[in-house]
Design goal:
290 residues, alpha+beta, Rossmann fold, Tumour Suppressor Smad4, 6-stranded antiparallel sheet, nucleotide-binding, ATP-binding, ATP binding, kinase
Length: 290
């Protein structure tokens, strides 16, 4: 009997084409799947499609086709502990694909057919009436301001270059304020915080060695220095593969934390809200095809 499979595809992804989707569905059919293709038309569709699959099927098999934003949307629609989830990399950054070692659509298909899985642990960010899951990272402070400041027209014209333009504006209008981070009864002062559920950040750069999509808990990067050069040093360490720790930057483990202040907050590359926020780990959200 064919295995039901819901393909949630973002048609605005960089590698999307009707021909590619036809090739993917034909491959899955030949491998014993019964794929149903759902194309997203807005930012909330991926979560809605995933929620519907979880409501209609006892153990849904869902494939997120797009970039990291599509994967984040699907994760936000899942019923915990119910679904098996696979990633089909069609986006531009595809940090998820790099975390999983998926180098192509064909490699992703081979893994889907094989159906070998591991647990997926995610994070939950809550603040100002907003609750949002993330699977890669959540940032509060500098990168939150950068994501918040991305202009739609620039993103459409320059793609990822829009984030660089926003970073330049954020550096020019430098925020010197600090915020308090409470973890396990301890309190720390940070200028920015990145809560890492995965090791990589912004592509192939390893920011938090030891962070894992499969294990509950985070590696938390706290930038204590509030100067521009502190961030330059951090960027150079990460670019040269030395990780984030050092030179006013500490990295520590946490299962939950509270971040004070009113700085901008992003999760998996999307602006969410301003602080204060709480962040907690969500183990065993789904089975992730590896």
């Amino acid at each position: 009997m064919a295995v039901p499979c819901t393909l949630i595809i973002n048609p605005t992804s960089g590698s999307y084409s009707e021909a590619l989707v036809s090739r993917v569905t034909a491959h899955l059919i030949s491998a014993g799947f019964a794929p149903a293709v759902l194309l997203t038309g807005g930012p909330d569709d991926a979560a809605a499609f995933a929620a519907r699959a979880c409501a209609e099927e006892e153990h849904p098999f869902i494939v997120a086709g797009g970039g990291d934003g599509t994967m984040n949307g699907v994760i936000n629609g899942l019923a915990p502990g119910k679904a098996t989830l696979a990633f089909l990399p069609l986006g531009t950054a595809n940090v998820c694909a790099r975390e999983l070692g998926i180098g192509s659509v064909d490699e992703a298909l081979r893994r889907i057919v094989r159906r070998q899985t591991r647990p997926l642990a995610a994070g939950v960010l809550e603040g100002f009436g907003v609750s949002r899951r993330f699977f890669l990272m959540a940032g509060v402070g500098f990168d939150g301001f950068v994501v918040e400041g991305v202009l739609g027209a620039e993103k459409k014209r320059f793609g990822k270059g829009a984030y660089l333009l926003s970073a330049v504006r954020t550096l020019a209008a430098w925020d010197k304020g600090m915020m308090e981070v409470a973890v396990g009864g301890e309190r720390r002062l940070c200028h920015s915080v990145i809560v890492c559920n995965a090791a990589r950040y912004g592509g192939s750069f390893v920011l938090a060695p030891g962070a894992s999509l499969h294990e509950p808990g985070f590696r938390v990067v706290c930038v204590a220095g509030g100067r521009r050069r502190d961030y330059l040093r951090l960027a150079l360490r990460v670019a040269f593969g030395r990780g984030a720790a050092g030179g006013g930057v500490t990295v520590f483990a946490a299962d939950s934390l509270t971040i004070g202040g009113n700085k901008a907050v992003q999760a998996d590359g999307d602006f969410i809200c301003h602080g204060p926020v709480t962040v907690r780990s969500l183990p065993d959200l789904a089975r992730l095809v590896v």
